[in-house]
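=== RUN LOG ===
request id: a7f3
mode: sequence -> structure
chains: 1
length: 514
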Amino acid sequence: MSSWSDLIANQQIDSLEPSVGQELLRHALTDQVQTSGRRVFTNRTLRLGKIKYIGFDLDFTLAHYDQDALSQLAFELTLDRLVERFGYPKEILGSEFRTHFCRRGSILDTEAGTVLKMDRHRYVGRAYHGRRFVETAERSRLYRQEPVNPASSRFYRVDTLFELPEVNIFSEVIDLAQRRPRVITLESYNQLFRDTRQAIDSIHADHTLKKHILADLPRYLPLDPELILALKRLALGDRRLLLITNSEWYYTEALCSYLFDHTVPDGSWRDIFDLVVVEAKKPGFFRKNRNFVELDNAGNPVGEVDQPRWGKIYSGGSRESLAQLLGGQGEEVLYVGDHIYGDILSSKLTSTWRTALVISELEDELETRQELSSKHRHVEVLRAELADSGQRMDGLHDILALYRRLSRGDERANDETRSIRTLSIERTQAHLSALRSEHKAMRQHVRRLQGRISTAINPYWGSLFKQGANKSLFGSQVDDFACIYTSRVSNFAFYGSNHYFRVLRDTMMHEAPI
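=== RESULT ===
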């Protein structure tokens, strides 16, 4: 017997004119296959029903670029710029774009010339100098003699996906300089970093990168048919949607027309958003009080305004000025972005806005973790056995020390007593030696298993969210500043417009399952 939802899906929905609303109703009423990579994960309980306004970033948030294609384009354009304007030899044009090497959450050490990864305690767990993996002894010499401050001018944190190509260039040019010193001699690693930064900034500033993207949008920006469903579902109940992007009007208009105009045949993408803000200059948007500049439909400035109005296009502005229009409590606003610093951390530190972080890498990582779930479980079992074995070794070590102290301290003991104690020491030593061998073999086995898991996720860096057994520095920031996080905006199509995102667990170590 068909359920009421089946009847609606099969009869009433099919009788409607084809539209986004029809597809949304079908999506809401039929069983949709949702993989773990398409879930929304919760760090802080959030009731969508209490959210009146949702703001969206554009690049890498609504516009879900093909990361590899876009990074390779930026990589090649930046190398060209380094040769043309910064005097680097043409040989750098042969540098290899390594898809898996450039990684969000990486940190560039502009003094030592390394790319590194930290855990949440600022411990450097992995590092590369050029293409060479930096072994433990060298890492300890570089980063264990004194505290590492990733906020200092020596280090550069890679927070946005647009910055990934420069990580690759930084390492490739250093590798070339080491292999072929007659071809290129670096003044300093810091100078290489500054040149690369300026070069990649210039292809953004003079619109070279954006012109290439717009010339071949299908290549760099795959369409996601569920994106419009997610936006329409989130807009139910008269909730207002805002677009707040750092991109210029011409680029915003071109991308949004490509993404959405075919989904609203009787209108345009402008009908989706109640307010559009371009050239917002985030993170300054969240920190400085600046007036909005109203734009006409062609993107030409009309004049400054103190407070924006619904249905208009603006450039610049600030969260403080926008708050006058929104009114109410900051917790009624949800901001969705991909930049841990420019979008999430800045909005969290300067307001009570709720935050949703888009982490495109999450999808592939969760898929790989699912494939390796049996190995993960095996590692957890072995870790528990290691802890138990280590505790037994600790006990035997102390027992052995006590036997030896007794043997040395009692001169009045007879031969039989001494013989018994000697035998006890020998047996304890033998037991401890066997346990140490077993413990070492188990550690090596765990290390091999963890290495396979880590390499499967990323051959250079492992999990984006972990470093060893701890959260990575990036993972801890996600935990601290993102109320919810997911791999793409279209994942919200799987959730009701009043969904209650609950924290399923936020355990401390002492709360581990018994």
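=== NOTES ===
The chain has a mean pLDDT of 89.
The first strand starts at residue 40 and ends at 42.
=== END ===
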